[in-house]
Write a structure and sequence with these properties.
- The strands form two sheets. Strands 3, 4, 5, 6, 7, 8, 9, 10, 11 and 12 form a ten-stranded mixed beta sheet that branches.
- The protein is built from three helices and twelve strands, in the order E-E-H-H-E-H-E-E-E-E-E-E-E-E-E.
- The longest helix has 15 residues.
Amino acid sequence: MSDDRFGDRADGRVDDGLNDGFEEGFEDDEFDLGSLEEELRQTVAILDPVPAELCRIAVEAYALHDLDARVAELTFDSLTDAIPVRGAGDVPRMLTFHSGGLTVDVEVSEDGLLGQLLPPQSASVEVLHGPRAGAALTADAMGRFACPTPPAGPFALRLRTGGEVVVTEWMRA
């Protein structure tokens, strides 16, 4: 039994009328895929453009990508690893990161950020705050560094010690 809306074809397939004029099919070499892709990009750019702020964030996120950087893993966080003390008010958050032979101890409080590298050594330290430009700090010969403003939101540290680059895991302040 056949539905009256559809016609039967000689090859046994049902003709639903949707492919009128396109029965031969398309050959891949008939299309210039490069120009089709460019037309689609232009259409999307007009109808649904990417916000300029998002483009800027994406470019800056890619710029943070250091292929030679070692990642310093979080090994201690006073929010989760420390035993709470009764009656303690606003205590600073203590963080410890390890990467190979380098240890980074960081104290985060409402007064800012204090840190020390172990073994003690001088280094340039950058506090990364996502899309915003990070604070550039310098660790002295004892490995100490300080930032007078506390990080707001996610942050990480990028350390340059000699020819080595170390980046800590991202943390939420």
